[in-house]
Structure formats: structure tokens, C-alpha cells
Amino acid sequence: MSRPGSPGTQPGPERTLPVSTMGTAPADASTAPAVPASPEQALAELHAGNRRFVTGAPRHPNQDAGHRTAVADGQHPFAVIVGCSDSRLAAEIIFDRGLGDLFVVRTAGHTIGPEVLGSVEYAVTVLGTPLVVVLGHDSCGAVQAARTADATGAPPVGHLCAVVDAVVPSLRRAAAEGVEDIDGIVDIHIAHTVEAMLDRSAVLATEVAAGRCGVVGMSYRLTAGEVRTVAAVPARTVDAPEPAASAA
């Protein structure tokens, strides 16, 4: 598989490794953003929510009793978050979102199997979600465990070996590129997961090629609380407009 930024094995989607640009929150805290309808708008909304979280000014949208009732009969999330299971990586908190906004799938090291891919495909094709985000973080324990197991030759016990095996290809790529620091390896693993999702899911690749969905890899900084984009398919996904405000 190719690293984002070089020709990939899936026809259609362009792959790259851009640097993210944070969005800003709407000036009027009494208003709620319009529901994003495109990958670019969805990404802008996530960045805006993350900025509110980082600056200590969250709005906690869509968490009231009225909205709970409103979404009881159906959901229309604007982003799928395929995130690491780390307890410090709660997507609705770090993106300042609420009920019905995010379709969240979490595994250690954001590893992907058939169940994860099926969940993503459901969100994208049935619910019409326009953005898929692979969310990793610095100092990832799954990556560290895989690195230790690979260096010592001692496989972990039980099903943890499946997590390690899923991370090993990223370790091989990092070694080939001369990347040794753990956070650099994490970035490569995030980008590799984006690639792997498109390579293994023809359904997702078709939606991306048709322009109905985008796939973005993000890394979260545990101390600062910030997210940054490390991979995007297609590349234009990161050219995100400012989120529009509308009446709540």
C-alpha cells in the first residue's frame, strides 16, 4: 500500500498528508451550527468544536432533553470517528458535540477489522454520513506495545496479539522511512489506517471517489487537547470552510 501523497491502489481518491487548519467557533454561543452536508463542512465543524474544547469555551450542543427527544426516531451523524479506545480520547468531548452528531467506533490503536469496516460502511451508505475520521493520539499504548513485542520477539498473550499484528505494518513502514520517535510512528499508523480502510472497503472507496464522503486521519495531543490532520482523501477535504451558524 502507498503512503498518502503517492499513487494509491484504489482508483479515484487522491491521497496526501496535509497540515490541518483549525476552524473557529461561531461568535454567538446561543446559536448552533448548521448540520454539515459535505466532507469539508463536517471537518470544519470538528475543528471548530475542538477549538472550543481547547480554549475552555465548550457549548455542549445537542445535549439537552429537547434534542434527546428530537433524535429518538432517527440519527443523521455528520462524521464517523474511528478512534483509539484510550479513555482520554472521548470524541464527543474533544470535538464539543452531542447526541446524534458523531457515529463512533473505537478499538485499541484504531485497528480495523470486518466489524469496524461494516460499521463505517453502514454510517456512510445508510445514514449518509459525509466524513470518516481516523483518530489517533500521541504516546499511543497500542503502538508502544506493538513496538515492544516486535523488538523483543515476545508476542502478547490472548487477543492482544491481534492488535499488535495490525500495528506491525506501520512499524515496518516507519523503519523503512527512518522514523523512530513514537509520535512519528503514530502519525504513520494513522495514515496507514486511512489507506487500509480505502484498500479494504470497496464501498467506502466508491463513496469517496464519487465525492459523497471524505476520509481524514487526525492525531490528538493528550496534554494540549488539540487535533491536527495528518492524512486526507481526497486532499481538498482539508480546505474546510468556516462553519455557518443557524438558530438553535
CATH architecture: 3-Layer(aba) Sandwich
The span between the termini is 44 Å
Count of the domains: 1
CATH homologous superfamily designation = Carbonic anhydrase
How many β-strand runs?
7
Query: Which class best fits the helix and strand makeup?
Result: alpha/beta
CATH secondary-structure class: Alpha Beta
Beta fraction: 5-15%
Key words describing this protein structure:
248 residues; alpha/beta; Beta-carbonic Anhydrase, Chain A; five-stranded mixed β-sheet; globular; disordered N terminus; zinc ion binding
Q: How would you describe this protein?
A:
The chain has 248 residues and is α/β, with parallel strands linked by helices. It has a single domain, classed as Beta-carbonic Anhydrase, Chain A (3-Layer(aba) Sandwich), CATH 3.40.1050. The protein contains eight helices and seven strands, in the order βααβαβαβααααβββ. It has helices at 39-54, 65-70, 91-94, 114-125, 141-152, 160-176, 182-200, 202-209, and strands spanning 32-33, 79-84, 102-107, 131-137, 214-220, 227-233, 245-246. The strands form two sheets. Strands 3-2-4-5-6 form a five-stranded mixed sheet, with helices on both faces. Strand 5 (214-220) and strand 6 form a beta hairpin. Helix 7 (182-200) packs across helix 8. The longest helix is centred in the C-terminal third of the chain and has 19 residues, at 182-200. The radius of gyration is 18 Å and the shape is globular. It starts with 31 loop residues before the first strand and ends with a strand. The model is unreliable at 1-32 (pLDDT under 50).
